[in-house]
Amino acid sequence: MRQSSATGGRATRRRTTFSLAAALTGTAMLATACGGGSETDGRVTLRFSWWGSEERAQITNKAVDAFEKANPDITVETESIDFESYFDRLSTSVAAGDEPDVITMGGAYPREYAERGVLLDLAEVSEQLDLGALDEKALSNGEFDGSAYGVPTGVNTFAVVANPAVFEEAGVELPDDDAWGWEDYAEIAGEVSEGTPGDVYGSEDPTQPDTLDLYANQRTGLGLYAPGGGVAVERGTVNDWFELTTALEEAGATPSASMTAELAAQAAPEQTLMGRGKAGMKLAWSNQLAAFREASGDDLVLLRAPGETTSAEGTGMWLQASQLYTISKRSEHPEEAAALVDFLVNDPRAADFIKSDRGIPANPEIREHLEGDLSESQKVEFAFVDRMSGLVDGDFVIGPTGSTESVDLLQRTHEAVLFGRQSPSQGAKQFVTELSDAVS
Question: In its keyword annotation, does this UniProt entry include Signal (predicted)?
Answer without folding.
Answer: yes
